[in-house]
Prior knowledge:
It is rod-shaped, with a radius of gyration of 29 Å. The chain starts with a helix and ends with a helix. 93% of the residues lie in helices and 0% in strands. It is mostly helical. It has helices at residues 3-9, 11-16, 18-71.
Amino acid sequence: MTTEKILREHQSFLSSHRQLFDNIEQNLIALESLEVQNQADQYSSLLRDALVIGMNVQREMLNLQTSDVLKN
């Protein structure tokens, strides 16, 4: 059966359940939005961790340079 034929044969069913289909569509959109937000949050967390690591490495390198200068 083609999609068009199924839609024609079940027009009354579709009409009577239109609100249900709209709700399902809205819920799917909300779920996709949550998934995108979750991915953005994970990416943000990784970037934040990388920044902290970079700052810690920089601080340790400055400490090493300072201690080398004081030794000489």
